[in-house]
Design brief:
Helix content is about 60%, strand content about 10%. Strand 7 and strand 8 form a beta hairpin. By secondary structure, the protein is α/β, with parallel strands linked by helices. It starts with 5 loop residues before the first strand and ends in a 6-residue tail after the last helix. The N terminus is likely disordered. The chain contains 22 helices and eight strands.
Length: about 425
């Protein structure tokens, strides 16, 4: 969970209040134990039940031991007199550690820290992500009490956008992202579909790469995992394009790119790999792979079809050099991540396809970027994955051992992959 959750510090603006029936809080059971504003030894289900029975909000504060903004709120915000007074009078508050209660965090679509959810009568009244100062936080609490809050503002933005057909892409994109973060999945679905429909007829290379590299499809994947209606809507779009790309007659590259992107977001790797196999056998193979192959890359890697990697990235060393020039590989942590990911995948691809000269160059350049035992371990791991390691990997293993670095059972697994020590 920690790798997927980031700590954010955000500010909020004043909100307008709406007319709602006021809560009439009742006393909480005497059996509850408190630590400041927090109720101890109670899970979220019981907290929501008790809050409803006592005419209060349930406040769920999603946190983690390593989250600095969470610690700031615990130190400066919740002990504030105005905040604690409001919470004691109007809420039942609990903390939920996302590392210890991952399933609860997933159920509430928590993707950043801290996330605070206010629940009224069993339904989400509002939620915010990111730290607030005490005055901002109590203003938010009071606004939700009066029927306002962040969710209300997002819903109003969505209504305003629908009334303004000329709204630009950036406004739609921000609304989609904000709705997704807030758990307003219906609004997020509508906006992401609109964005896709606007872009798909004009998927030139630059726009397609933009949709791909700016993680648009990862946002939609996150949405689809949590909202069945989104999955159904994007699958419907994919199916409609399937009929287009499978039809007789001339086909547009933009349609094919859009179709591949939709297969990515709904997770249909089989369809992508089937297309790749057809493209490899097509008279237009080189053109198809050059213009659309990158959209099959993730499916190829997930399936560990290493021999297909060079078809998508035919010049991996040149691409590595370009990444360095673009500043994408600038520090040790980034370099190591690249070795564990993209660089290692290129190495596995070169080995699996029998291009030993390229494989050797990948090793040489990877060590030039980051000459360390960690880099060597990463390359050896991918050599083993490729099913075709060479003595280069054995030489890397010897260098690791010479440096006194503990690589666990890596040598044994490498020797098994190389067939060393087998009876014969």
């Amino acid at each position: 969970m920690r790798g997927l959750i980031v700590a954010l510090t955000l500010l909020i603006a004043p909100v307008c209040l709406a007319d709602v029936d006021p809560l009439v809080p009742k006393p909480l059971p005497d059996s509850l134990e408190f630590d400041g504003v927090w109720v101890r030894e109670i899970d979220h289900v019981r907290a929501i039940e008790l809050a409803g029975e006592s005419g209060r909000f349930a406040l769920l504060h999603f946190t983690a031991e390593w989250c600095r903004p969470c610690k700031m709120m615990g130190r400066d915000v919740y002990p504030d007199a105005s905040v604690s007074a409001w919470l004691h009078a109007n809420a039942l508050s609990i903390k939920i550690d996302v590392d210890e209660q991952n399933e609860v965090a997933e159920a509430f679509a928590v993707s950043a820290m801290p996330t605070i959810v206010l629940i009224r009568d069993g339904e989400t009244a509002d939620r915010i992500t990111g730290a607030r100062k005490a005055d901002q936080f109590v203003e938010w609490l009071r606004s939700v009490e009066g029927g306002g809050g962040e969710l209300a503002k997002i819903r109003q933005r969505a209504a305003n956008i629908e009334d303004s057909p000329g709204t630009d892409l950036s406004a739609r994109s921000r609304l989609a992202s904000d709705a997704l973060s807030a758990g307003l999945f219906d609004i997020a679905t509508e906006q992401y579909l609109w964005l896709f429909d606007q872009a798909s007829p004009n998927l030139t290379s630059s726009i397609a790469v933009g949709l791909h590299s700016m993680m648009w499809h990862h946002s939609v994947e996150y949405l689809i995992e949590r909202h069945e209606s989104a999955r159904a809507a994007f699958t419907e779009r994919r199916d409609a394009l399937t009929r287009v790309v499978r039809s007789d007659g001339r086909k547009r590259i933009s349609d094919l790119r859009a179709w591949l992107i939709l297969n990515q977001v709904i997770g249909d790797d089989e369809a992508i790999l089937n297309w790749l196999d057809e493209a490899k056998a097509s008279p237009a193979r080189d053109r198809l792979l050059k213009r659309c192959g990158n959209f099959a890359y993730e499916a190829v890697v997930a399936a560990e079809r290493w021999e297909d990697v060079p078809l998508i990235v035919p010049e991996p060393v040149e691409e590595m050099q370009s990444m360095v020039r673009r500043g994408e590989l600038t520090d040790v942590s980034t370099l190591r991540d690249a070795a564990l990911g993209w660089t290692g995948e290129q190495y596995a691809g070169a080995l699996a396809s029998g291009n030993l000269e390229t494989a050797h160059e990948i090793v040489r350049y990877a060590l030039f970027m980051h000459d360390s035992p960690e880099m060597r371990i990463a390359l050896i791991e991918y050599a083993i994955k490729s099913g075709a390691p060479t003595n280069d990997a054995l030489h890397l293993m010897e260098e690791i051992e010479k440096a006194g670095h503990d690589a666990g059972d890596l040598r044994a697994r490498l020797e098994q992959a190389l067939g060393i020590g087998e009876a014969g």
